[in-house]
## 1
Amino acid sequence: MIRSTRKITTWGAVITMAMAALATAGELRPLDLPSTRGTYTQEQRAPDSAATVYDQFRERIGRLNDQEKQEVLEAFKKEQETAESRKDWKAAAHYQTLIEIIVPP
């Protein structure tokens, strides 16, 4: 029972992190032409949120044992195949990145 609960909790955490990267898409803003701006000012940019999500995933996947990593890997490969069959290339690329974190090329 404890192992089953742990497996469900692990899967829940991994899937939540994987989907968080898709949910953190950047805000779309209208294009501001240089000729309409007054003076040039350099904007301070926040770190790439997608990179942060992948870094967090890398940390969490490092805590799993080999069997759990293999289960997550198989699940992500199936999700990638599903995304490719739907021609959802962004999701397929996301799962490919997650797979490469688990098993570096």
## 2
Amino acid sequence: MNINQANLNKHLYISYTTNNEINGIVHISHGMAEHVGRYQWLISKFNDAGYHVYAANHRGHGSWIEEGHRSGYFSDKNGWELVTKDLRNNIIAAQKNHPELKQFLIGHSMGSWIALSVVQSNVNLDGLILSGSAKIDTFSILIQSSLVNLIFYLKGKYHESLLMHKVTMQKFNSFFKPNNTPNDWISSDRESVDQYTKDPLCGFVVTIGLWKDTVDGLKQIFLKDQYKNVNNNLPIYVISGDKDPVGANGKLAKKLVNFLNSIFKNVSFDLIPNARHEVFTESNKEANFYKVLSFMNKYC
């Protein structure tokens, strides 16, 4: 991976295509309790296809942890705002460095919601891809918010909440019994799951402060009024596994598509048979990559 961090977020990794013809730039917004290093295969595929890739670790993840930042924790104040601003600034920096190139944003899981928060800020993009995502209904957000706020009040913002881990990640994994690992829910590809499980920068228990920031972010991204100034011609592609527990086996992914269709004019959707949470680590990841590439190439 080529790295150039001059005048940019030091947790941002840039990998340049060596192709003579450059199609555009892909930004990657990763999920909770993982890091951009897990996207090396996807990054190399985009490089081979003629795209530069900008991929940054969110606060409290990856290189932030290695530098001593608290794992699974955004910030003492305005955490969601800050991770949104980090991603937005990286996109703006790429636009300044390469004004002639199209800009695409891929958001996975929690990173998909951060990506929607960036869209609300009206940054200029040529395409948005959301994977492993879902539309959480208002009632569920309020219930989760009440639980998170109670734990936050009783235990403090730095508390690594085993309860929240149990009702999310452990619950997701329970759908795939008998379990080989605590992470069978992410992919049906055993090698990918084993790599995730052995990675000390993956699958950790995040703080209640991060959960509070995320719930507060969800309250904003699913308010239609927050999109009133956006470009409603933005092309959006949603890809989800029909065995992804985050998307309720496609149900919440379809609700996300319906929500986006009420705001944007160009939304497309693929529900991948037998795929779990990570469509880019699945056994059919090549086919899933080419679905995304086909979507992007239409707008280059």
